[in-house]
Design a protein that fits this description.
The protein has 222 residues and is of the alpha+beta class. It is 22% helix and 28% strand. The protein has a single domain (5-220), classed as 2,3-Dihydroxybiphenyl 1,2-Dioxygenase, domain 1 (Roll). The strands form two sheets. A nine-stranded mixed β-sheet has the order 2-3-4-1-5-10-9-6-12. It has a three-stranded antiparallel β-sheet with strand order 7-8-11, with no helix packed on it.
């Protein structure tokens, strides 16, 4: 699927109007298409991009208006729904734990709704696509980002993929503030389990050494 900047702009504008994305979050998402985005090669290799938004209650989201925008529900379960939009953008809304951060007792959390992360979905498994995926941790380190690899298969939110890299931006970077997921391999829907491979803690988190999410590999240096 070819990713469409115009479709992304329209879709993210709609969710700003619905108060499910902030203007700052929308600007971050659209920066994915910039030539200066640090992982632009992974964006070009991706079949789709997803934006995962944490909400208080998935059931109260404006589902009829979302479907009227041309979205198709690809995967839905209690506390979780994924919508596929034309142009290669998938919007995910959840109220279930999706990150190791969600399990830190007593942690101060961001007010919902908020963008938990964005993701680049590289579904093709050919050597050139694998090469782009494999270079992500080294690229992150070179750019001052932090990285964690989840060796596959990786299970989370009723799905399975072959592997994932997670990268976390430097604190000084204003144009991108949230974790970025780069997933590799075909997506398999799992009906009976949510999986346990949560988004790992940022390696800069004080608890990162003891809780990186079930199935997470080691953090890349940096």
């Amino acid at each position: 699927m070819s990713l469409g900047m115009e479709a992304f702009a329209a879709t993210t504008r709609f969710f700003c109007e619905e108060h499910l994305l902030t203007v700052d979050e929308r600007d971050q998402i659209l920066w994915l298409f910039g030539d200066d985005f640090p992982f632009s090669d992974a964006v070009r290799a991706a079949d789709t991009v997803h934006v995962h938004v944490k909400v208080e209650d998935v059931a109260t989201r404006p589902h009829q208006r979302i479907r009227a925008m041309g979205a198709v529900s690809e995967n839905a379960a209690p506390g979780y729904v994924k919508y596929s939009f034309p142009g290669g953008i998938n919007m995910i809304f959840s109220s279930i734990p999706v990150a190791a951060d969600d399990l830190v007792e007593g942690a101060v959390t961001i007010a919902k709704p908020f963008m938990d992360h964005a993701g680049l979905d590289i579904r093709h498994c050919g050597p050139s696509y694998r090469a782009v995926f494999d270079t992500v941790p080294a690229r992150a380190t070179a750019m001052g980002w932090r990285a964690v690899t989840q060796d596959g298969p990786v299970h989370c939110c009723h799905t399975e993929v072959a592997a994932k890299h997670w990268v976390y931006p430097p604190a000084c970077l204003a144009s991108w503030r949230r974790p970025l997921e780069v997933a590799f391999g075909a997506l398999r829907i799992v009906d009976k389990t949510m999986g346990c491979d949560l988004r790992p803690l940022d390696p800069a988190h004080p608890l990162a050494g003891s809780s990186t999410g079930c199935g997470a590999g080691g953090a890349a240096p940096g």
